[in-house]
């Protein structure tokens, strides 16, 4: 969380009393006039520039310093209503300036209420992605730079504690829903009862399946009496959502509802029909012929993004390549968005994490290589170009099976899109190069296999079956186009309820790779069709399969384990760094089979053949092996306390005279037992011996107890004597040292009550040390309290105060 504090108030020079009063008076007058101007604001007048709006000086100067002068349509319509405290449902095309449409009212409404740090949280802005939250926060810092509010960014990726410490002092927060809920539930100091405004940017996304419950829980924490603003490029008026958010008589501000198109007029939109197996070739050819452009390429999953990025990087197209997806670490994601924003010519491969709200300057092309799940997603993706009156172009790649369905959806949403064809002479094939690369580089091949699986998975979970027809996709050919020797097997779980998993990107977990194949390394085998069986296998194929055993046989034989215990794939290092795995796809976790390695064993020994460095097991005291397959678990090895859980209780050993260790209870040999005589006689002897041992132990115990009582009595007497001496001395007027060497714990008299633990939080008394038990107060100590000093003058008072403080 980065606090943003404007400085104009701090910079004020000290003034004399009358100057201050005058300034305060002038401030009050300005404020009343501002309030009056807001009240008088006519909602029907169309406002063109920020200077026409009733805005405070700090906001006006923040806007002008950020070079915002004229209002966009959505700003002109929404800001006026929001200034008057109305709830708003705002919908406007991508890149039309929705961010300012809610930031300006936030600053103004808090300003007019003279919000201070003591008032706590005044406004909460929710964003579906971290990147968008960061971007909103940056705009807030810019336009709010002359305000004195504190603002924070809560998006996770930092320690909760660090955020917790500062959270209580924030007036405005920009956050992602998950992290916000975590704080609302766990941060005691965080109060929201005073909240004035709740804003949701990309509201339809926040309120869809992925966040529904989180948002409900957040709203439960917020006061009902508040102003709520919802913004998106594809807003819906779903009554249930509005009820959930307790919107009161919201103003529906949909500035482009009557427009002929849902997308900016400066945007040229095209689609190409390119069969799935040719998509990579088409993309490659496109990039090669647009080296002087800035392009965003959208793919359906992080694994797809990684594979295309890695393979194209190997092929060196002659333009910088970047990639962005949700499984990257936060720092990396931020670096990439900054780099891409600053670059002039580059290609960014991204998942839908970049589809909403991100404002990359001057993007020339948006390529949607994988078909978006619906028309709204298409609109958001394509909206990364042609922002704020600039020009831009979008190209959608469609498999022939997707063409009809998707075009219907787009037409329904008023998206004007035209077909274009690829020039045959420009089309280049990279299939052979990819095959060679996958052949030589097992890691790339592994990425390709994951990309294939995740693509098929993403198509399968799509809700719109008119557009996404998995059975019509030439999967075998698609796998070959990725450079793979065959299509990895995929098993679809029966009864798969796609409706339940509407959001493909969020809930792709209902599929499983085929674990029915009982061939030891057969899991990686391509899907065999009848055609395949008749095909002659070339030397090349055989080599590929041999390489396969090294790369994937290890993974899959561990991945798919009938007893469901462990898996140990051998992902490339990079792939693991991104935590970009197929785990969600599989019903078993990626862990090793039990008993792979003993504690302290060489790391290399603990890995299965051909495996990467990622997972290992350690066995502790013969217990079930502890699988080390993540950084968190690796840390665990360093904590003795945590490891106790995995350790046994330990075995007690006794040593004989020769120094040999024996278990405490060792089973005796039957022959030896018999040799010692009749069993009944032995039992009686044993009982008699044990009874005697118990009697002796009893006597010893009683003696110990008696000794302790004697000691206590002695101490009590000593204490009584000391007290008597003290009182006698008092009567004689002699001052004694405090009685602090007496063990009060052994006294039979009731002790002076110790302050309870709670007392720590009660305002401390003069000595400021409520925790420690104090020595008993004697009459002496009472009489020793000095008489109250005389305070005649201000000087006397100051002297006393400084003495107390000192
Ligand atoms: N009044 C304005 N004058 C000039 N530029 C503006 C104005 N308002 C916004 N912009 C610029 O327009 C661009 C798009 O703004 P913004 O990101 O707020 O759009 P958006 O509507 O939220 O887009 P999306 O729907 O994609 O989230 C930004 O670069 C912003 O700086």
Characterize this entry briefly:
By secondary structure, the chain is of the alpha/beta class. It has 27 helices and 21 strands.
For this entry, give a set of tags.
806 residues; alpha/beta; Rossmann fold; eight-stranded mixed beta sheet; seven-stranded parallel beta sheet; 27 helices; flat; disordered N terminus; disordered C terminus; binds adenosine-5'-triphosphate
Description:
With 806 residues, this protein is an alpha/beta fold. It folds into three domains: 22-254, Rossmann fold, CATH 3.40.50; 266-513 and 521-527 and 535-593, Rossmann fold; 605-646, no CATH class. The protein has 27 helices and 21 strands. The strands form five sheets. The protein has an eight-stranded mixed sheet with strand order 1-4-5-3-6-7-2-8, sandwiched between helices. β11, α13 (330-342) and β12 (346-350) form a beta-alpha-beta unit. α4 (98-112) crosses α5 (130-143). It starts with a strand and ends with a helix. Mean pLDDT is 75; it is low at 1-12, 495-533, 539-614 and 733-806.
List the helices and strands and how they pair.
Elements: E1 4-5, H1 17-40, H2 57-65, H3 73-83, E2 88-91, H4 98-112, E3 123-126, H5 130-143, E4 150-154, H6 160-167, E5 172-175, H7 177-186, E6 197-201, H8 203-206, H9 212-221, E7 227-232, H10 239-244, E8 251-254, E9 267-273, H11 279-288, E10 294-298, H12 302-315, E11 321-324, H13 330-342, E12 346-350, E13 365-368, H14 375-382, E14 392-398, H15 400-412, E15 418-419, H16 431-440, H17 442-460, H18 475-481, E16 490-492, E17 511-513, H19 530-534, H20 539-559, H21 573-577, E18 616-618, E19 626-628, H22 631-636, H23 640-643, E20 653-655, E21 661-663, H24 670-675, H25 679-732, H26 779-784, H27 794-805
Parallel strand pairs: 2-7, 2-8, 3-5, 3-6, 4-5, 6-7, 9-14, 9-15, 10-12, 10-13, 11-12, 13-14
Antiparallel strand pairs: 1-4, 16-17, 18-19, 20-21
Helix pairs in contact: 3-4, 4-5, 7-9, 12-17, 16-17, 17-20
Bound molecules: adenosine-5'-triphosphate.
Family: Belongs to the DEAD box helicase family.
Biased composition (Basic residues): 1-12, 709-719
Pfam family, one: CTE_SPB4
């Amino acid at each position: 969380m980065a606090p943003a504090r404007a400085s104009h108030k701090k910079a004020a020079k000290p003034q004399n009393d009358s100057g201050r009063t005058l300034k305060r008076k002038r401030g009050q007058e300005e404020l009343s006039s501002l309030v009056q101007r807001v009240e008088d604001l006519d909602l029907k007048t169309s406002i063109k520039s920020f200077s026409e709006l009733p805005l405070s000086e700090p906001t006006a100067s923040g806007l002008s310093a950020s070079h915002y002068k004229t209002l966009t349509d959505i700003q002109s319509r929404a800001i006026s209503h929001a200034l008057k405290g109305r709830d708003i449902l705002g919908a406007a095309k991508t890149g039309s300036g929705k961010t300012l449409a809610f930031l300006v009212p936030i600053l103004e409404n808090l300003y007019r209420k003279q919000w201070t740090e003591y008032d706590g949280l005044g406004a909460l802005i929710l964003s579906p992605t971290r990147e968008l939250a960061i971007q909103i926060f940056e705009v807030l810092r810019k336009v709010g730079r002359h305000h004195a509010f504190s603002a924070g960014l809560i998006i996770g990726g930092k320690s909760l504690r660090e955020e917790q410490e500062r959270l209580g002092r924030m007036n405005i927060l920009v956050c992602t829903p998950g992290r916000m809920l975590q704080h609302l539930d766990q941060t005691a100091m965080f109060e929201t009862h005073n909240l004035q405004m709740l804003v949701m940017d990309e509201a339809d996304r926040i309120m869809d399946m992925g966040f529904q419950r989180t948002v409900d829980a957040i709203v439960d924490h917020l006061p009902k009496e508040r102003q709520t603003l919802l913004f998106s490029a594809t807003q819906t008026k779903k009554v249930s959502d509005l009820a959930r958010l307790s919107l009161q008589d919201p103003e529906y501000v949909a500035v482009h509802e009557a427009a002929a198109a849902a997308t900016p007029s400066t945007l040229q939109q095209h689609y190409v029909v390119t069969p799935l197996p040719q998509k990579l070739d088409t993309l490659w050819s496109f990039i090669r012929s647009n080296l002087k452009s800035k392009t965003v390429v959208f793919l359906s999953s992080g694994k797809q993004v990684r594979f295309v990025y890695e393979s194209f990087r190997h092929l060196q197209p002659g333009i910088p390549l970047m990639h962005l997806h949700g499984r990257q670490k936060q720092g990396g994601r931020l670096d990439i968005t900054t780099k891409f924003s600053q670059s002039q010519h580059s290609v960014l491969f991204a998942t839908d994490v970049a589809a909403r709200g991100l404002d990359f300057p001057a993007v020339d092309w948006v390529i949607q290589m994988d078909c978006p799940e619906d028309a709204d997603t298409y609109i958001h993706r394509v909206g990364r170009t042609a922002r704020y009156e600039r020009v831009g172009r979008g190209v959608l790649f469609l498999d022939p099976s997707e063409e009809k369905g998707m075009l219907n959806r787009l037409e329904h949403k008023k998206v004007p899109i035209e077909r274009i064809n690829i020039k045959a002479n420009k089309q280049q094939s990279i299939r052979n190069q990819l095959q060679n690369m996958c052949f030589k580089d097992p890691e790339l091949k592994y990425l390709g296999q994951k990309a294939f699986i995740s693509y098929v998975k993403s198509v399968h979970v799509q809700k719109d079956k008119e557009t996404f027809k998995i059975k019509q996709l030439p999967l075998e050919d698609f796998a070959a186009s990725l450079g793979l020797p065959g299509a990895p097997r995929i098993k679809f779980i029966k009864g798969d309820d796609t409706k339940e998993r509407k959001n493909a990107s969020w809930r792709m977990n209902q599929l499983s790779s085929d674990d029915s194949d009982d061939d030891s390394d057969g899991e990686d085998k391509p899907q065999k069709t009848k055609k395949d069986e008749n095909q002659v296998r070339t030397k090349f194929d055989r080599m590929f399969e041999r390489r396969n055993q090294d790369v994937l046989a290890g993974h899959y034989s561990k991945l798919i384990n009938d007893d469901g215990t462990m898996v140990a794939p051998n992902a490339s290092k990079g792939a693991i760094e991104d935590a970009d795995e197929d785990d969600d796809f599989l019903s078993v976790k990626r862990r090793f089979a039990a008993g792979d390695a003993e504690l302290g064993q060489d790391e290399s020994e603990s890995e299965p053949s051909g495996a990467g460095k990622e997972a290992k097991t350690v066995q502790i005291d013969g217990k079930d092996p502890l699988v080390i397959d993540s950084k968190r678990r690796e840390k665990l090895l360093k904590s003795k306390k945590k490891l106790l859980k995995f350790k046994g209780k330990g075995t007690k050993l006794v040593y004989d005279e020769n120094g040999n260790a024996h278990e405490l209870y060792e089973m005796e040999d039957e022959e030896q037992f018999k040799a010692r005589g009749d069993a009944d006689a032995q039992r009686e002897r044993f009982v008699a011996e044990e009874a005697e041992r118990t009697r002796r132990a009893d006597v010893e115990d009683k003696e110990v107890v008696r000794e302790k009582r004697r000691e206590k009595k002695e101490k009590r007497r000593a204490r009584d004597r000391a007290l008597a001496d003290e009182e006698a001395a008092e009567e004689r007027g002699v001052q004694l040292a405090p009685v602090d060497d007496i063990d009060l714990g052994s006294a039979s008299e009731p002790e002076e009550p110790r302050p309870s633990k709670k007392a720590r939080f009660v305002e401390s008394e003069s000595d400021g040390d409520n925790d420690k038990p104090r020595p008993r107060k004697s009459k002496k100590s009472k009489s020793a309290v000095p008489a109250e000093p005389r305070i005649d003058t201000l000087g006397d008072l100051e002297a006393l105060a400084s003495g107390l403080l000192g």
